[in-house]
C-alpha cells in the first residue's frame, strides 16, 4: 500500500549532495512530495527531510540506496504516525477586500493563522500546520481574491529519536567497527524503522 | 577524515615547499603503490602530465588510443590483480569518453580512481573550451566523485578516493581537478593514507545471531543450494568459500561474475547460472529448499522472472552491501558483512554432510544438457566450426590456466559456459553493463596487471570493431595479448533474438568486417585467419606459442544459437535446450 513516508537524511554539507540524493528518486521515476534541507542539531551536519508516497518495500530500498551515498551518515524512514511534522504557508490577499468582506479575527482564530504584513494594497497571512489546515485556509482566502500562495516543504521531528544524535556522532569514531549495528530491521520494527 | 601517518615525503618527490598540485597528485599515486596508469593527455590535464614526465621510472603510463580504452584497461588491470586501476583523462570529451567504463565499473564493482582535468575554476559554468559538467554527468555511475579547485585539497581528497574505491564493495571514484589547482604551488604536508571517512561505513558489522540462524537453516535443509557471485573474489575469500561448501557438501553454482573463484571442475561445482547458464543449476533453483546466495546481487539475467524465482526456498543472503538485501529477492536470513569474515563463522556452525541424493538430481540434468547440447557443441564432426569447439581446444592447450577476457554477445556466453578455469580472477568480462568493445582494452590492462599470466581476449566480429583502435596501444607498449576473434559475420546475439522473437527479421545485424589479419599487420601484430576444423588446434597453439601478441580470426558457424536459454520473461525452471522448445 502506498502511503506517505518521511525520510530524514543526515549528511555532510557538501556541494552536489542534493543532486546525489535527488537522482536516487528520479532514476526510479519516483516523484518527491516535498524536499527540505536544513542544518541539523549537530554542527556541520546537514539534515534533509524528504516526503515520498510509496510502498514500504520501495521506500526501504530507497533508504538503503541513499545510505549508500558516501557522504550520507544515516537515513530514518518514518510513517506519519511516527513523526511530528509541520509545514508553513504564506498567503497574499488584497487588503481592501479582506478587510471589507472577511471577519479577519475569526479567520485567524479558526485557522491558527497569523498576519505577517498589513499594507494598503495587500496583507500577508501565515499559517503553520499540516495539509488540511493549510488547504482549508487556502480555500477560504481564495474567496477574497488570493494574489499569491506558497507552501514550504515538510519538516519533521521523529517522535522516538532519542538515539539519533548519538548514532550519527558515533560514526565519526575512528574505528567504525565499534559503531552501532545497522541490520535491526530483521527484528520486528521496534521504536523506529532504521537500517 | 582519519588518516595514517606516512613518511613518504622524501622518498617520492623530495620537497615540501612550492609543491604544485600536479606533483601532489603524482606523490599520492606513488604513496598508494600505484605502478601503472592508463590515460590520454589533453589541455586541461597537461600540468599533471608534465609532473608525470619526471617519474617515468616509477609510474608506468600506458598511452591508449581512446579514453574508453583507458578505463576498460584499468578495469582489466583491477579485475585481474585486485589492485585499484588508475586513469588519467582530460576535461570535456576526455572525461565523457570515460562514461561507459565508469558505468561498467560501477555495476561490476571494480575499484578505479579516475583523475580528470578540468578547466580553470574561474571558467566553470561559462561553457569554456572543453568544459563539461563531469561531476554531475558521472554522479550516478561512480561510487564517489569530487571536484578539486584548490591544490591544498589534493592530498586528502586523493587519499579518500583510494580508500573509498577499494574498501567495502569496491567501485569507481572520479576526481575532477581544475587546471588552476594542478598549477597552484602550496606547502605540502605529505600524503597520509585514509582509513576512515566519518559518513561512510565500508563494511557492515557482522552479527552472530544471523550467522546462527543461517547455519540452522543450512543444517536442516534437505536440498540446499549455493549460488555465488563476484563477492567471493572481491573479498579474497576463495579459500573460505571452498572450506564452507566442502564442509557442508553443498552443490554450488556461480554467476558470470563469480566464475573462477572456485575451479570450474570442482566436484561441488554444478555450473553457471543465468540466461545462458547451465541447465541444472537454473532448473533446480526452483527445487531447492534453502538457497544460499554469497556475494551476488540477483541480477535479472540470473533470476529470470522474479515471481517464479525460488519461491519454494528459504533464502540466506550473504552480502557486504546492505542495499542488495531484499532488493530483488526477499531474504529469510540476511548475513551482512565481508564474506571473508562471515563464511568462516558460518563454516564453524554447519554440519558435515554430502547430500548425495540431491547431487544426483544435478547429475541427471547435466547428463541431459550434455547429450542434447554440449557434446555436439564441443565435438562436432562436420559442418562449420562452432564457438564451443574453439573453446574446447583452447582448454586443452591452456589447461585452464589462462586469463580469459571476453567481450559481449554469443562468444561471451559460450566462453563462460565452456572455458575451463583453475585459478581465481581468470574470467574478466563486462557482466552487468554488457559493454561491447570491452575485451581488447581490458585484456591489455589485464596483461599489465598479471604479466606472468597468459591473457586471451575472446571477441566477436562486432565487439572487435568497437575498440579496435587499441591495437595501437598493443603496438606501442607490447603487452603480450592473444586476440581470438570468433567471426560469424553477424551481431550474433541480437541476430539470435531476432530469429527467436522477431520472426527472423534480421534488422541490421548483418555486419561486415575488415580483414582483421591485415589490419593487425598494419599494427605490427602477427595473425592468421582460419575456417577449417583441421587447422584449429595447430593455429591456436601457434597463437599461444607466439612470443608476442597475436590475432587469430576463426570463422565460425554463421547462424548458430546459444542454448540453453531462459527466455526473457520466463522463470528459471522454464529454461530450454533448443529453439523448438520456445
From TrEMBL, chain A:
Q: Which GO terms describe its molecular function?
A: acetolactate synthase activity
Per its UniProt entry, what is the enzyme's top EC class, as one word?
transferase
| Catalysed transformations (reactions) | 2 pyruvate + H(+) = (2S)-2-acetolactate + CO2
Pathway recorded for this protein:
Amino-acid biosynthesis; L-isoleucine biosynthesis; L-isoleucine from 2-oxobutanoate: step 1/4; Amino-acid biosynthesis; L-valine biosynthesis; L-valine from pyruvate: step 1/4
Provide the ACT domain boundaries: 6-80
Recorded superkingdom: Bacteria
**InterPro entries recorded:** Acetalactate_synth_ssu, Acetolactate_synth/TF_NikR_C, Acetolactate_synth_ssu_C, ACT-like_dom_sf, ACT_dom, AHAS_ACT, AHAS_small-like_ACT
SUPFAM superfamilies named among the record's database cross-references: ACT-like (SSF55021)
Q: How does it assemble?
A: Dimer of large and small chains.
By its UniProt entry, which NCBIfam families does this protein fall under? Answer: acolac_sm (TIGR00119)
Q: Which family, according to UniProt? A: Belongs to the acetolactate synthase small subunit family.
Which PANTHER family does the annotation name?
ACETOLACTATE SYNTHASE SMALL SUBUNIT (PTHR30239), ACETOLACTATE SYNTHASE SMALL SUBUNIT 1, CHLOROPLASTIC (PTHR30239:SF0)
Protein name (database record)? Acetolactate synthase small subunit
Organism of provenance: Flavobacterium jejuense
UniProtKB/TrEMBL annotation, chain B:
Per the annotation, how and in what number is the cofactor bound? Binds 1 Mg(2+) ion per subunit. Binds 1 thiamine pyrophosphate per subunit.
Q: Which reaction does it catalyse?
A: 2 pyruvate + H(+) = (2S)-2-acetolactate + CO2
Domain of life the protein comes from:
Bacteria
Residue stretches making up the Thiamine pyrophosphate enzyme N-terminal TPP-binding domain: 22-135
Which Pfam families has this protein been placed in? TPP_enzyme_C (PF02775), TPP_enzyme_M (PF00205), TPP_enzyme_N (PF02776)
Question: Magnesium: is it a keyword of this entry?
Answer: yes
Any GO molecular function: acetolactate synthase activity
According to the entry, every stretch annotated as the Thiamine pyrophosphate enzyme central domain falls at 211-344
Q: Which family does it belong to?
A: Belongs to the TPP enzyme family.
What protein am I looking at? Acetolactate synthase
- What organism is this sequence from? Flavobacterium jejuense
Amino acid at each position: 500500500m502506498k502511503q506517505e513516508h518521511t525520510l530524514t537524511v543526515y549528511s555532510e554539507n557538501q556541494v552536489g549532495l542534493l543532486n546525489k540524493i535527488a537522482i536516487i528518486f528520479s532514476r526510479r521515476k519516483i516523484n518527491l512530495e516535498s524536499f527540505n534541507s536544513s542544518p541539523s542539531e549537530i554542527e556541520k551536519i546537514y539534515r534533509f527531510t524528504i516526503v515520498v508516497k510509496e510502498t514500504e518495500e520501495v521506500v526501504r530500498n530507497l533508504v538503503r540506496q541513499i545510505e549508500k551515498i558516501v557522504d550520507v551518515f544515516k537515513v530514518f524512514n518514518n510513517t506519519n504516525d511516527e513523526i511530528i511534522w509541520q509545514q508553513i504557508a504564506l498567503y497574499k490577499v488584497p487588503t481592501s477586500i479582506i478587510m471589507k468582506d472577511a471577519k479577519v479575527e475569526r479567520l485567524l482564530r479558526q485557522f491558527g493563522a497569523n498576519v505577517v504584513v498589513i499594507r494598503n494594497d495587500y496583507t500577508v497571512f501565515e499559517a503553520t500546520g499540516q495539509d488540511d489546515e493549510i488547504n482549508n485556509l487556502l480555500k477560504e482566502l481564495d474567496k477574497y481574491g488570493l494574489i499569491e500562495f506558497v507552501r514550504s516543504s515538510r519538516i519533521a521531528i521523529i517522535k522516538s529519536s532519542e538515539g539519533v544524535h548519538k548514532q550519527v556522532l558515533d560514526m565519526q569514531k575512528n574505528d567504525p567497527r565499534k559503531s552501532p549495528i545497522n541490520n535491526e530491521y530483521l527484528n520486528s520494527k521496534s521504536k523506529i524503522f532504521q537500517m | 577524515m582519519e588518516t595514517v601517518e606516512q613518511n613518504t615525503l622524501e622518498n617520492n618527490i623530495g620537497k615540501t615547499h612550492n609543491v604544485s598540485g600536479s606533483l601532489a597528485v603524482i606523490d599520492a599515486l606513488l604513496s598508494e603503490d600505484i605502478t601503472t596508469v592508463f590515460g590520454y593527455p589533453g589541455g586541461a590535464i597537461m600540468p599533471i602530465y608534465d609532473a608525470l614526465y619526471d617519474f617515468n621510472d616509477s609510474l608506468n603510463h600506458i598511452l591508449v588510443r581512446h579514453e574508453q580504452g583507458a578505463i576498460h584497461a584499468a578495469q582489466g588491470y583491477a579485475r585481474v590483480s585486485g589492485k585499484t586501476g588508475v586513469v588519467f583523462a582530460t576535461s570535456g570529451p576526455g572525461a565523457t569518453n570515460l562514461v561507459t567504463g565508469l558505468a561498467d565499473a560501477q555495476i561490476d564493482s571494480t575499484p578505479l580512481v579516475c583523475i580528470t582535468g578540468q578547466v580553470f575554476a574561474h571558467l566553470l559554468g561559462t561553457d569554456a573550451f572543453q568544459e563539461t559538467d563531469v561531476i554531475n554527468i558521472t554522479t550516478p555511475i561512480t561510487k564517489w566523485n569530487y571536484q578539486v579547485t584548490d591544490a591544498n585539497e589534493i592530498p586528502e581528497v586523493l587519499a579518500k578516493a583510494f580508500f573509498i574505491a577499494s574498501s567495502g564493495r569496491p567501485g569507481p571514484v572520479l576526481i575532477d581537478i581544475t587546471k588552476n589547482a594542478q598549477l597552484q604551488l602550496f606547502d605540502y604536508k605529505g600524503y597520509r593514507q585514509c582509513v576512515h571517512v566519518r559518513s561512510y561505513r565500508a563494511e557492515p558489522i557482522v552479527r552472530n545471531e544471523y550467522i546462527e540462524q543461517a547455519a540452522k537453516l543450512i543444517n536442516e535443509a534437505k536440498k540446499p543450494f549455493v549460488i555465488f557471485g563476484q563477492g567471493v573474489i572481491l573479498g579474497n575469500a576463495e579459500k573460505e568459500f571452498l572450506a564452507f561448501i566442502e564442509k557442508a557438501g553443498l552443490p554450488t553454482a556461480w554467476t558470470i561474475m563469480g566464475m573462477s573463484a572456485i575451479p570450474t571442475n570442482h566436484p561441488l561445482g554444478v555450473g553457471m547460472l543465468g540466461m545462458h547458464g547451465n541447465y541444472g543449476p537454473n532448473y533446480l533453483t526452483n527445487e531447492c529448499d534453502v538457497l544460499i546466495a554469497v556475494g551476488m546481487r540477483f541480477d535479472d539475467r540470473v533470476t529470470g522472472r522474479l515471481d517464479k524465482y525460488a519461491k519454494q526456498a528459504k533464502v540466506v543472503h550473504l552480502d557486504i552491501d546492505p542495499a542488495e538485501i531484499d532488493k530483488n529477492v526477499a531474504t529469510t536470513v540476511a548475513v551482512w558483512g565481508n564474506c571473508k569474515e562471515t563464511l568462516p563463522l558460518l563454516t564453524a556452525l554447519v554440519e558435515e554432510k554430502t547430500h548425495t541424493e540431491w547431487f544426483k538430481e544435478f547429475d541427471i540434468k547435466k547428463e541431459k544438457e550434455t547429450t542434447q547440447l554440449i557434446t555436439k557443441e564441443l565435438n562436432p564432426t562436420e559442418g562449420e566450426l562452432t564457438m564451443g569447439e574453439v573453446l574446447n581446444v583452447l582448454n586443452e592447450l591452456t589447461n585452464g590456466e589462462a586469463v580469459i577476457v571476453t567481450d559481449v554477445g554469443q562468444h561471451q556466453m559460450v566462453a563462460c559456459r565452456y572455458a575451463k578455469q583453475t585459478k581465481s580472477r581468470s574470467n574478466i568480462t563486462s557482466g552487468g553493463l554488457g559493454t561491447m568493445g570491452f575485451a581488447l582494452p581490458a585484456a591489455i590492462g589485464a596483461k599489465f596487471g598479471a604479466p606472468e599470466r597468459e591473457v586471451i581476449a575472446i571477441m566477436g566480429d562486432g565487439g572487435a570493431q568497437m575498440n579496435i583502435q587499441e591495437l595501437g596501444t598493443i603496438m606501442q607498449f607490447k603487452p603480450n595479448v592473444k586476440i581470438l576473434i570468433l567471426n560469424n559475420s553477424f551481431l550474433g546475439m541480437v541476430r539470435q533474438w531476432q530469429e527467436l522473437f522477431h520472426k527472423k527479421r534480421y534488422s541490421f545485424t548483418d555486419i561486415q568486417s575488415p580483414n582483421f589479419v591485415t589490419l593487425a599487420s598494419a599494427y605490427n601484430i602477427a595473425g592468421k585467419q582460419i575456417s577449417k576444423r583441421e587447422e584449429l588446434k595447430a593455429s591456436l597453439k601457434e597463437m599461444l606459442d607466439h612470443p608476442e601478441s597475436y590475432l587469430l580470426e576463426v570463422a565460425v558457424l554463421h547462424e548458430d544459437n546459444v542454448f540453453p536459454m531462459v527466455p526473457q520473461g520466463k522463470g528459471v525452471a522454464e529454461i530450454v535446450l533448443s529453439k523448438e522448445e520456445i
